[in-house]
Design goal:
Radius of gyration: 27 Å
Mean pLDDT: 91
Number of helices: 23
Length: about 600
């Protein structure tokens, strides 16, 4: 009897194992069939394009307005671009954004036969382009300070999903730069943090979530823009680090994200003299080709940072930078302009292509770049999305007549999966919860409940702060009243807000003049300022000027029960103590009220 039970149990276990193994095997075979199908489609589509069309596909352009005006229409007809980048000037209401993107795609299909990658910088915080239709999350640094990978993944997903619903399918985020240089003028709060662990955890999670959301996320700026004090928009930064040094720090978030499935990377306009003394990463075959493509085995999209930035425009314009970028390994040349500059870039690449410059080791690098871009337009369902309107003009001969059944079913399932994930990940309180959890304290942790609201006097600026106090029936004082209450010891705590150095200096001045009072400064700007040092001064950082971040700062002194942790960043050293030697706003007001 026992033997029969044993045999039956072994047989059942074997059947269960076989069922799961075969199921997994079938899934892997299907995934391979889908990938091979998309690669065949990409090959077939790219083979139909003329040299002029191939060149156009690797160039992404900008447009001037919120509609497909004659300038934008001409740009698409002339350049035949593979994508368009949109800025704040292009993005109005939700309905206007949808209308613009629909018109752009219709024009592109008629003129190029393919839909566009429509990109946007929607990093959160101080870098928000879309104001309607997408949740206004706090910025990257705030997200990093939450120390919550699950939150990062949800924020990435929701941002990407909502952008895709508006027709924006290419998301220039997350920023994987480790901002360990507090004098960095351009990355700053756009970075997730100053240490490897924070950037690694939040960045990889955000990218994974965004990838699931439908708008292709782009990790940037490879191989790392954090440790520089020069803005590449205005100059040419140099980082004197060896490849081994980069591998032990800056490159880890990028490499980990690649291993996790990242599909798109933006290059940095930075020279690394110990790796390539002649060219910045964007133009360097040693960095994009040897390191990223070969050593890291990265097969995804590489897009340049904007080629009009001074780091390229002022230093390499005579060397055909678009051609150099493609030779280095880039797939997309990002332009943030239109007209003469984009036409010049097109002519430069077309001339090189016709001369055979872009053929290396038997490979047509231009065609490979276009094929890769088409593959990702297929992978994310961007091509299948426009099957209903791709019927006239160039689309009639370039656009796929019929996708294989396995691909059609795959894209249907892809859409269903996104909808299901959105219902799981999105809650009305997500932005509020992230914003609250992001608030941290300087120079020590902070216990809000040590002083009651009745013993606190407020002097805050900005309608969002003032209206929040008003809804709580709390009076907002002017500066003169705050000063008098502190002089008469009618308040134990004063709460101010700040965005600039001047406002922080005001809080420092008050802290010095009233050493027995606690001065709390709610700071929603960059933390990389000359931070005042006074024993009775506490600074709470939100890193973000969004509405929920501002509300989170007030919540932190009015409602929060638990301790606010110490900020986890490398901040600027400040040798100065709070000083009253320089006249501040507070001094000026007090003189006028005496």
């Amino acid at each position: 009897m026992f033997k029969r039970f044993l045999v039956a149990g072994i047989s059942a276990a074997f059947l269960i194992f076989l069922f799961f193994y075969l199921g997994q095997f079938r899934s892997e075979l299907q995934a391979q069939e889908i990938q091979e199908g998309m690669l065949r489609q990409a090959e077939e589509i790219s083979s139909k394009l003329s040299p002029e069309e191939l060149v156009g596909q690797v160039i992404h352009v900008a447009i001037p307005g919120t509609v497909l005006d004659p300038i934008a229409k001409k740009e698409i007809e002339t350049i035949k671009p593979g994508g368009v980048i949109l800025f704040g000037r292009n993005l109005g209401s939700k309905s206007e954004i949808k209308s613009l993107n629909k018109d752009l795609q219709t024009s592109a299909l008629e003129n190029t036969g393919l839909p566009l990658l429509i990109s946007v910088d929607q990093e959160g915080g101080r870098v928000i382009r879309v104001k309607d239709g997408v949740t206004q999350f706090p910025g990257a640094m705030a997200l990093g300070q939450t120390k919550d990978k699950d939150m990062a993944k949800k924020v990435g997903f929701v941002t990407s999903y909502q952008l895709r619903k508006l027709g924006l399918n290419f998301l220039f985020a997350p920023d994987m730069d480790i901002n360990n240089n507090p004098f960095n003028p351009v990355i700053n709060t756009r970075s997730l943090g100053s240490n490897l662990e924070t950037v690694l955890n939040a960045g990889v999670s955000y990218e994974e979530g965004a990838r699931l959301g439908g708008s292709i996320p782009v990790i940037k700026h490879f191989p790392g823009h954090g440790d520089t004090n020069v803005d590449s928009h205005l100059g040419l930064p140099k980082i004197e680090k060896t490849l081994e040094e980069l591998k032990s720090f800056e490159l880890i978030p990028f490499q980990t994200s690649i291993q996790n499935g990242a599909d798109a990377i933006m290059s940095a306009h930075i020279v690394y003299p110990k790796i390539d003394p002649n060219f910045p990463a964007t133009l360097s075959s040693k960095i994009l080709g040897d390191l990223l493509r070969k050593e890291f085995q990265y097969n995804g999209l590489i897009i340049t940072d904007a080629m009009e930035m001074d780091a390229i425009d002022e230093h390499y314009q005579k060397e055909d930078p678009g051609v150099l970028a493609l030779l280095a390994g880039a797939d997309i040349i990002l332009m943030t302009s239109w007209g003469p500059t984009t036409q010049s870039m097109r002519d430069q690449i077309l001339k090189a292509y016709k001369k055979g410059t872009l053929v290396r080791e038997g490979k047509d690098l231009l065609k490979e770049a276009v094929k890769r871009q088409i593959y990702y337009k297929l992978k994310y369902g961007i091509i299948s999305e426009f099957g209903d309107i791709a019927k006239s003009g160039r689309a009639n001969s370039v656009f796929p007549k019929e996708l294989p059944e396995v691909l059609k079913n795959h894209f249907i399932e892809q859409d269903k999966n996104r909808e299901n994930l959105f219902s799981q990940y999105y809650q009305d309180t997500l932005n509020r919860d992230v914003s609250r959890k992001a608030v941290v304290s300087f120079p020590k942790s902070f216990l809000p409940e040590q002083t009651s609201v009745a013993e606190t006097v407020f002097y805050v600026k900005g309608e969002e702060f003032i209206s929040d106090l008003r809804t709580r029936s709390i009076t907002n004082s002017d500066l003169a009243t705050l000063r008098k209450k502190l002089e008469k010891k009618e308040a134990k705590r004063a709460v101010l807000n700040s965005f600039t150095q001047t406002e922080l200096d005001l809080a420092a001045s008050l802290a010095q003049k009233f050493p027995e009072a606690e001065i709390v400064c709610l700071h929603y700007g960059t933390p990389f300022l000359d931070l005042p040092d006074a024993p009775n001064l506490k600074i709470l950082f939100s890193f973000s000027p969004t509405l929920e971040s501002k509300k989170a700062l007030l919540y932190s002194v009015l409602d929060r029960k638990n301790e606010i942790p110490l900020v986890d960043l490398i901040l600027k050293p400040n040798p100065k103590k709070a000083s009253a030697s320089v006249e501040t706003e507070e001094d000026s007001v007090s003189k006028n009220t005496k």
